[in-house]
Design brief:
eight-stranded mixed β-sheet; Rossmann fold; binds iron/sulfur cluster; 18% strand; 31% helix; 28 helices
C-alpha cells in the first residue's frame, strides 16, 4: 500500500485550522482524548461513499491505527478542499460512533422487536449457509432476493463481489429504480446517452436553468460553477415546486405545480416553434420527428399550460424567449423531476429543448445530466462485473419501489423466502413503509442485513453482520455527477469484528460450496483490475498512479462538445423527438380514486431539505439531528387557516397508508394545496415512529418503473 508520510504536528494542525482548511478538529475525530503531541501519521487517500453526485476526495491521517486527521483533499479541483457539513465529522459520527454494530448478531426476539444476541462469524455463516441451502432446496434459488443499493456507491463494497455471489446462486435481484429509474431511460430515448455538458463547463453558460434540482445542497461542488457563470453575466433560473435553498438564490424561481414539468417544457416548445426561435439547420441535420412535434405542441399553448402548471401565461412565454435567445443556454437536471407519474415524459420533453434551439453548438450549452458513462467507458468492467461472464445470471429482477408488495405477495412464483439487505435501509427510504414492515414481519422470511447501525430495517433481521466503513476497506469510486475516478485505501483496521461486505460474500460463497476462482479475488485486486484498461480516458492513469494520487480526472478531449454536430447515441444517430417505445412526450393527469380526492385533498412533497442527513444516513447522529431540529411541514396560510393551524403547532399528516407527527411552518412560499416535508428522518427517532415514506405511495412512473413519490395525497390536522 502506498503511504505518503506527512509530519503532522499540533502547531501545523492549528495553523491549518486557522487558515480555514477543511480538516476536522482533532478533538472531534479522535475516539479518545487528545494526546499532547502528535508527531507523525500516515496519510491515506479516500473518497466519499455516499450516493451523491460530488464523490469528494479526502485524506485521512492515522497514527497507532487511530484517525488523527480527516478532511477534503485540497488538491482535487472539483472537491475544492471542502466536504459537506455532515461528512466533515464522518470518522467520529460513523466509524467511531458508540452505537456502531461491531459483532454479528442473531435474533432472539420477535421480528422487529430489536432483540438480538451476539454470535461469532463462523457460527453465523455456518447457520446461515444451512438455512439458505434449505430455502433453495424447498423453494428454488429465485426465492432468494438480493437487495443491495447505494448505501455505498463505491464499487467493490457495493456490488463487485455480491453480484458474483447472487449470479452464481441464480437468485432474484432488486431493480435499482428508485433513483434514476425514469430519468435515465427517458434521456436515453431522446439522446441515447446521459452524457452532456461537463460539470466544469457550466461556467461558460449564460442562461442556466436548474430544473428540479437543489444544486446548492445536493450538488454543492457544482454550485460554484453556476456562481462563476453568474459573475460573467449568466442568469440562474430554478424550476422547482418548492422553495429550495437554491431557489432562494436564483435570479428567477419558477414554481409549477408538482408533476407538471412536461407541460411546461412542451409549452416552451410551443412558443419557441411558433415564434420561429428554433435552429432549423440543427433540427434538419441532427434530429428526427420535428414535423410531428410541431403539430403535437400546438395544443400546449400558454393558456392551456398555464392552467396545468398553475403559472402565469407571461412567465411561460418569457422563459421560452429568454431560453431560446440567450447563448449558451444550459438546462441542468438530476433526478428531482422524475419522482412523479409524468417523470419520464417530463425528462424527455426537457431533453428535446437544447436540440430545438441548437444550444448544443456552444461550449456550456445543451443539457447537463449524469456522467456515469465516463467510468463505463474507461474502467475495466469485464473484471469488476465478473458475474456477467459467469455461467449463470440473475434471472428475475424485482422493482425496489414495490418491495412491500413483493414481500407480501404469496402468488409470486416463487415467493420471496430469503432476503439479503446491504447498503440499503428500505424501511426508511422506499415508499409505503408500513407495507414493507408487514413483509419484513413474516416469520417465515429469512432476513440477513449487513449494516453499521441498528437501523429500522436491521431490527427485522434474523442475522446482522457488522460492516466496515469507508476508512476500513479498499474500494474504487466512479461518479455520476463529475468526471473523476477515486480509489479508497483502508486507513485503519476494521473496528471490532466488522468486515467488508465483499468478505461476507466470500465467506458465504465458501459455505455454499461455490468454488469459482472469482470468489478468491481480494478487494485490492478488484480495485487494481479496474485500471487494467487501455481506454484513452485513462491514459497515464494506472493503479500505481492512483495509489500515489488517490484521484484522477479522466483524459477527456477538450473542448467537450458532444452534440455540436449531432452524434447522438441513438440507433438513428439523431436526437429522437419521437421515441420508438413511447411516442411523443405528453402530460397525463394522475389518476386518484374519488375517495382519495375527497379525504386527502393536499399534495405532499417529500424532499431532501436536510443538510445533515444523506437520505437516511447520519440521521442517527445526535448533533446533526439537533441541528436539523424537529421534522416539519410547510403549509400555505390558506390551507393552515382552513385547519386552524399556526406556525409551531404540532400537526398530524395522514392518509390511508400512514400518519406522521410534524411541526407546522406556515409559509407563503409553498403553493396552496401543496404541503412539503423533509425526507430522511429515522422513523423510530421521531414522535409516532413513522416518517415520510409511511405516507408515500409505491406508484410507478410512466417510463422505467421509477418511484412516483411525489404523487401522494394527504390530509393535515392539528395534533
Ligand atoms: S455527501 Fe457529497 S458533498 Fe458530502 S462529502 Fe460526500 S460526496 Fe462530498
Amino acid at each position: 500500500m502506498s503511504k505518503k508520510k506527512e509530519k503532522i504536528t499540533r502547531r501545523k494542525f492549528v495553523n491549518q485550522a486557522a487558515k480555514g482548511y477543511a480538516s476536522v478538529q482533532l478533538a472531534s475525530v479522535l475516539p479518545v482524548s487528545l494526546p499532547d503531541t502528535v508527531d507523525e501519521g500516515t496519510t491515506y487517500h479516500g473518497v466519499c461513499y455516499h450516493d451523491c453526485p460530488d464523490s469528494c476526495s479526502w485524506k485521512v491521517t492515522v497514527q497507532d491505527d487511530k484517525v488523527i486527521s480527516f478532511g477534503a483533499d485540497k488538491e482535487n479541483p472539483f472537491t475544492a478542499g471542502k466536504l459537506c457539513g455532515k461528512m466533515e465529522t464522518f470518522p467520529r459520527d460513523i466509524t467511531y460512533h458508540p452505537d456502531r454494530l461491531l459483532t454479528p448478531l442473531k435474533r432472539v426476539g420477535k421480528k422487529g422487536e430489536g432483540k438480538f444476541e451476539p454470535i461469532n462469524w463462523d457460527q453465523a455463516i455456518s447457520e446461515l449457509g444451512d438455512q439458505l441451502k434449505d430455502v433453495i432446496s424447498r423453494h428454488g434459488s429465485e426465492s432468494v432476493l438480493s437487495h443491495g443499493y447505494m448505501g455505498t456507491q463505491s464499487l467493490v463494497q457495493k456490488s463487485a463481489m455480491s453480484s458474483r455471489f447472487f449470479a452464481r446462486m441464480e437468485a432474484s435481484e432488486i431493480a435499482h429504480t428508485i433513483c434514476g429509474g425514469a430519468v435515465v431511460p427517458a434521456i436515453f430515448e431522446v439522446n441515447g446517452t446521459s452524457m452532456g455538458v461537463l460539470p466544469e463547463d457550466m461556467q461558460h453558460s449564460r442562461y442556466i436553468i436548474l430544473w428540479g434540482t437543489n444544486t446548492k445542497h445536493s450538488n454543492m461542488h457544482q454550485w460554484p460553477y453556476a456562481l462563476k457563470a453568474r459573475e460573467a453575466g449568466a442568469r440562474i433560473i430554478v424550476v422547482d415546486p418548492f422553495v429550495s435553498a437554491t431557489a432562494e438564490e436564483a435570479d428567477w424561481h419558477i414554481q409549477p405545480l408538482p408533476g407538471t414539468d412536461v407541460a411546461l417544457a412542451l409549452g416552451m416548445m410551443h412558443v419557441i416553434i411558433k415564434e420561429n426561435m428554433v435552429d432549423q439547420e440543427y433540427i434538419d441535420q441532427y434530429t428526427s420527428g420535428f414535423k410531428d412535434l410541431k403539430e403535437h405542441v400546438k395544443s400546449y399553448d400558454p393558456t392551456s399550460v398555464s392552467q396545468i402548471c398553475g403559472l402565469p401565461e407571461n412567465d411561460i412565454i418569457k422563459l421560452a424567449h429568454e431560453y431560446a435567445t440567450t447563448e449558451p443556454s444550459l438546462i441542468r437536471i438530476m433526478v428531482g423531476m422524475e419522482h412523479n407519474y409524468n417523470g419520464g415524459d417530463g425528462t424527455r420533453a426537457v431533453a428535446i429543448l437544447p436540440a430545438l434551439t441548437g444550444a448544443w453548438r456552444k461550449l456550456g450549452g445543451g443539457l447537463m445530466h449524469l456522467t456515469f458513462e465516463m467510468a463505463g467507458h474507461a474502467l475495466n468492467w469485464e473484471r469488476l462485473e465478473y458475474h456477467k461472464q459467469m455461467p449463470t445470471q440473475p434471472k428475475r429482477s424485482l422493482n425496489m419501489v414495490q418491495i412491500g408488495q413483493i414481500l407480501n405477495n404469496r402468488e409470486l412464483n416463487p415467493a420471496i423466502q430469503a432476503i439479503f439487505i446491504f447498503n440499503s435501509n428500505p424501511m426508511a427510504t422506499t415508499p409505503n413503509a408500513n407495507l414493507t414492515k408487514r413483509g419484513l414481519e413474516r416469520e417465515d422470511l429469512l432476513t440477513v442485513v449487513l449494516e453499521h447501525f441498528m437501523t429500522e430495517t436491521a431490527k427485522y433481521a434474523d442475522y446482522i453482520f457488522p460492516a466496515t466503513t469507508q476508512l476500513e476497506h479498499w474500494d474504487i469510486a466512479d461518479s455520476w455527477g463529475q468526471v473523476y475516478v477515486n480509489i479508497n485505501q483502508p486507513a485503519i483496521s476494521p473496528r471490532g469484528e466488522a468486515r467488508p461486505n465483499s468478505e461476507f460474500f466470500r465467506l458465504l460463497a465458501k459455505e455454499m460450496d461455490y468454488t469459482e476462482e472469482c470468489f478468491q479475488e481480494s478487494d485490492k485486486d478488484m480495485v487494481k483490475s479496474a485500471f487494467d484498461s487501455d481506454h484513452p480516458y485513462l491514459e497515464g492513469i494506472d493503479f500505481e498512479y492512483m495509489q500515489n494520487h488517490g484521484w484522477a480526472r479522466y483524459k477527456i478531449p477538450e473542448p467537450y462538445l458532444p452534440h455540436a454536430k449531432g452524434n447522438f447515441a441513438t440507433t438513428s444517430g439523431k436526437c429522437e423527438f419521437i421515441s420508438q417505445q413511447n411516442g411523443l412526450p405528453s402530460y397525463k393527469e394522475v389518476v386518484y380514486s374519488e375517495e382519495e380526492k375527497i379525504n386527502f385533498p393536499l399534495q405532499l412533497l417529500t424532499v431532501k431539505k436536510t443538510k445533515g442527513f444523506h437520505n437516511s444516513s447520519h440521521a442517527n447522529v445526535r448533533h446533526l439531528r439537533q441541528k436539523e431540529g424537529r421534522p416539519w411541514l410547510d403549509i400555505h396560510p390558506s390551507d393552515a387557516k382552513a385547519r386552524n393551524i399556526s406556525s409551531g403547532d404540532e400537526v398530524i399528516v395522514y392518509n390511508q397508508r400512514g400518519k406522521v407527527f410534524l411541526e407546522a411552518k406556515v409559509r407563503e412560499s409553498i403553493r396552496p394545496g401543496v404541503v412539503c416535508m423533509p425526507h430522511g428522518y429515522w422513523p423510530s427517532l421521531i414522535k409516532g415512529g413513522q416518517a415520510s415514506n409511511h405516507l408515500t405511495d409505491d406508484r410507478l412512473t410512466d417510463i422505467g418503473g421509477g418511484a412516483a413519490l411525489q404523487d401522494c395525497r394527504v390530509e393535515v390536522e392539528k395534533g
